[in-house]
Amino acid sequence: MAKILAAITGVQGYLPDYILTNKELEKMVDTTDAWITERTGIKERRILKGERGSSFMGIRAAKGLLEKKGIDPLDIDLVICATVTPDMLFPATANIIAKGIGADNSFSYDINAACSGFLYALTTGAKFIESGTCKKVLIVGTDKMSSIIDYTDRATCIIFGDGAGAVLLEPTEDHVGIIDSFFKVDGQGEDFLNMPAGGSRKPASHATIDAREHFVKQEGKAVFKFAVTNMADAAATILERNNLTGNDVKYLVPHQANKRIIDATASRMGIGEEKVMLNIHKYGNTTAGTIPLCLWDYESKLQKGDNLILAAFGGGFTWGATYLKWAY
For 98, 180, 274, 301, which has the most beta carbons within 10 A of its beta carbon? Predict the structure, then answer.
């Protein structure tokens, strides 16, 4: 019997209408369009306005995917949501998304691995497919980063945006789908990238609010150093253990954290910029949304059997890479 693999059989994204440009940020903090572009590659990012959470975007990405595929939401077995900005601490944002799309026969839960969350969720969902437990799994990466960004802090407010992407996983006996994954974590990352308050260690109080501790805090130089090394190492590891070279890869699909980090990863893999999926200039860093949004943007350029290397680095620190063959 042929081995069952989990294949991505559809992808869809959602982006808010409001565009926050570098020029607008110049009016908010001490920065310039040229400085932001040179150091990050970002020109603009999308912002979700109003009292709407990450589920709002996740529902729209997931609904769009089901409509595009012509799939009854009642046929969905599992919904996994990767997010670091859940609507609430509980219930899980995945539960809200499942209800919002009518996936009433599914079970669902969230994964929080920051910017690596989508890859963690993708690999987890694949195991349910490979085991035969599920036939249709929705993986949603969605983050409303604007809800935890301090727009007086130029170290973070220039980087992040809001957005969501969703993929459908289904079983296949063709030699396509998710072939291999490699993940690592280093807990010392807590010191360099975190949100200090709002959890059980430091619940919300007047003091934490006054100290602006409910926003992302980042030591940029330390994070950059770790990200450049480890995201590139993970991608290289995946190539080596699958006997691949840069020539075998159709696209690197990197987490859109910083253009310089992306360039370093591509260089380590020995591939040119024509083989790198890039949309950071349009959307910024949407955390768990970046990789599925890249797949959505480049979907029309992909063909069955194309080798893709997905790579990410996030708070935690978390990082890793996934090798998949495109299934359609």
Answer: 98
